[in-house]
């Protein structure tokens, strides 16, 4: 069904231009990452409705200005903040509804997972949004969306029924498997490279988990990392079923337990399995393999098959991702358990600052993907989250170099023995490290579709352009080879 074109308003557009008093707040006030970019849009349109979006796109086209977009403001590198652009901020558009007959939720892109799920839960339904409840569904879904239980439920973008999109021409269209299928294909995976404004998502929902339990162990990383990470990979390929989401994290002892002094930076492993089942009995069965985690008997924290809930998990995610200045990088890895352990060991055992953390998700057994532009995944996902709280620049640079070195070491393994096949847009900062984000075929197809819809690249696209994208990281001009620690 084609989208109904809205009547366009004639009142002044709510644009805050550079130089006006509220400009700085409009530029970055809704950006999660406190590491503020030095990029300055010409103005920020705080769109109230679809008509404002269309008028904003038309205005930008007439004046030859690029368009940048913001939904939830949670892209780590603040992709919405682009120089000389018109930033269309969708934060004031708040449509959210659920149709019990079709079981489809309709939501504006700035709606967050934490807003969507309380509504759905009243109907016994669920949508796997970002792990953190404050992530906007807009940017999250466009880049694929590694939502709750992605290992078993798949990428959240797989659950988009259709989208309404304002094209560079200013036309409003609906895209789905049936209508404008090329646009729909491109929207599910291209993330900040997408060349239209999604103003509405229609989402397939699923039954709400009736029961959630978790198993969590916390233990020193140095002594336990290799055994745990090797076991985890084997368990996920074997008896640990898809109803359990498994994450292995490294936090510092200082951050976890508030310790100061010589042990403050000691890396601690947090191994956590969270189940999504219909009953406690089923949860006990699903989580039983977690109890075989090496080192569990001597873990400093042991929580074995403990009830939890979505609100509790959301609260924990908020605590894990506190406000701060973040620097991010990630990799999809391929290799056998020992190779993966080798690639990640320093990341997990030598954190550079008290607040920083490192993450490993296992996605095995890897689910086949439907036909969409999101095409790059592997069983092993690793990401580093460098967090600084002060303005000590040399200290920040030291921490960033630490992450650069960890990723460069993974890049240096080019033969599949724990090396990378690319990165996930969601946890990337393309200004610092670009690389493969889609399969080569998908990238070629995406570029063709984008050139047809947006030949003048009116939409701001990937930070630092295309030239460094979809080539292996080590082929890039700014590539810094791995520096072994002293
Ligand atoms: C604390 C935290 C936790 C996170 N957890 C997860 C997680 O569990 N799983 C995961 O996959 N990711 C996660 N992320 C990453 C997050 O999903 C991405 O950064 C995503 O881009 C955020 O979406 P947003 O709408 O909030 O961001 P924004 O910064 O508003 O948008 C990012 C970019 O996406 C594009 N875009 C956004 N909306 C539209 C639109 N309506 N139309 C066209 N283009 C648009 C634009 O290029 C925009 O600049 C997390 C991020 C944070 C900060």
UniProtKB/TrEMBL annotation:
<dbReference type="Pfam" id="PF01565">
    <property type="entry name" value="FAD_binding_4"/>
</dbReference>
<feature type="domain" description="FAD-binding PCMH-type">
    <location>
        <begin position="37"/>
        <end position="208"/>
    </location>
</feature>
<dbReference type="InterPro" id="IPR050416">
    <property type="entry name" value="FAD-linked_Oxidoreductase"/>
</dbReference>
<dbReference type="GO" id="GO:0016491">
    <property type="term" value="F:oxidoreductase activity"/>
</dbReference>
<keyword id="KW-0274">FAD</keyword>
<dbReference type="InterPro" id="IPR006094">
    <property type="entry name" value="Oxid_FAD_bind_N"/>
</dbReference>
<protein>
    <recommendedName>
        <fullName>FAD-binding PCMH-type domain-containing protein</fullName>
    </recommendedName>
</protein>
<dbReference type="InterPro" id="IPR006093">
    <property type="entry name" value="Oxy_OxRdtase_FAD_BS"/>
</dbReference>
<dbReference type="InterPro" id="IPR016169">
    <property type="entry name" value="FAD-bd_PCMH_sub2"/>
</dbReference>
<dbReference type="InterPro" id="IPR016167">
    <property type="entry name" value="FAD-bd_PCMH_sub1"/>
</dbReference>
<dbReference type="InterPro" id="IPR036318">
    <property type="entry name" value="FAD-bd_PCMH-like_sf"/>
</dbReference>
<keyword id="KW-0560">Oxidoreductase</keyword>
<keyword id="KW-0285">Flavoprotein</keyword>
<comment type="similarity">
    <text>Belongs to the oxygen-dependent FAD-linked oxidoreductase family.</text>
</comment>
<dbReference type="InterPro" id="IPR016166">
    <property type="entry name" value="FAD-bd_PCMH"/>
</dbReference>
<dbReference type="GO" id="GO:0071949">
    <property type="term" value="F:FAD binding"/>
</dbReference>
């Amino acid at each position: 069904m084609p989208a109904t074109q809205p009547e366009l308003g004639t009142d002044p557009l709510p644009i805050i231009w550079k130089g006006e008093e509220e400009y700085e707040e409009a530029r970055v006030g809704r950006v999660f990452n406190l590491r503020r970019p030095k990029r300055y849009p010409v103005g920020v349109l705080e769109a109230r409705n679809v008509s404002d979006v269309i008028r904003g796109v038309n205005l930008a086209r007439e004046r030859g200005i690029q368009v940048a977009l913001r939904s939830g403001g949670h892209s780590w590198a603040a992709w919405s903040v682009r120089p000389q652009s018109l930033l269309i901020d969708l934060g004031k558009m708040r449509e959210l509804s659920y149709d019990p007959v079709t079981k489809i939720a309709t939501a504006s892109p700035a709606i967050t997972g934490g807003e969507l799920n309380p509504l759905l839960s009243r109907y016994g339904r669920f949508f796997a949004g970002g792990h953190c409840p404050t992530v906007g569904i807009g940017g999250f879904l466009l880049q694929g969306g590694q939502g709750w239980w992605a290992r078993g439920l798949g990428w959240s973008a797989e659950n988009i029924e259709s989208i309404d999109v304002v094209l560079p021409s200013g036309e409003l269209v609906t895209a789905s498997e049936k209508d404008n299928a090329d646009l729909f294909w491109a929207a599910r995976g291209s993330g900040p490279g997408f060349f239209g404004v999604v103003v509405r998502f229609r989402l397939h929902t699923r039954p709400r988990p009736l029961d959630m339990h978790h198993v969590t162990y916390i233990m020193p990383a140095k002594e336990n990392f290799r055994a745990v990470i090797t076991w985890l990979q084997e368990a996920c390929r074997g008896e640990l079923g898809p109803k359990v989401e498994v994450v292995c994290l490294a936090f510092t002892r200082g951050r976890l337990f508030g310790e100061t002094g010589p042990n403050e930076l000691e890396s601690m492993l947090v191994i956590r399995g969270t189940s999504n089942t219909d009953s406690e009995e089923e949860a006990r069965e699903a989580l039983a393999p977690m109890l075989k985690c090496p080192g569990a008997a001597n873990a400093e924290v042991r929580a074995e098959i403990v009830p939890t809930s979505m609100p509790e998990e959301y609260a924990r995610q908020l605590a894990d991702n506190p406000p701060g200045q973040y620097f991010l990088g990630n990799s999809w890895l391929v290799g056998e358990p020992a190779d993966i352990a080798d690639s990640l060991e320093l990341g997990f055992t030598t954190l550079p600052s008290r607040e920083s953390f490192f993450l490993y998700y296992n996605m095995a057994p890897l689910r086949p993907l439907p036909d969409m532009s999101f095409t790059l995944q592997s069983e092993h996902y690793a990401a580093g989250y460098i967090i600084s709280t002060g303005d000590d620049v040399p200290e920040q640079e030291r921490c960033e170099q630490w992450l650069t070195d960890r990723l460069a070491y993974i890049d240096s393994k080019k033969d599949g023995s724990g090396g990378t096949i690319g990165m996930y847009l969601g946890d990337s900062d393309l200004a610092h490290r670009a690389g493969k984000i889609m399969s080569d075929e998908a990238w070629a197809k995406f570029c063709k579709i984008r050139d047809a819809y947006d030949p003048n690249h009116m939409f701001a696209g990937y930070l630092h352009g295309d030239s460094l994208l979809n080539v292996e990281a080590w082929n890039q001009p700014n590539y810094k080879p791995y520096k072994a620690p002293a």
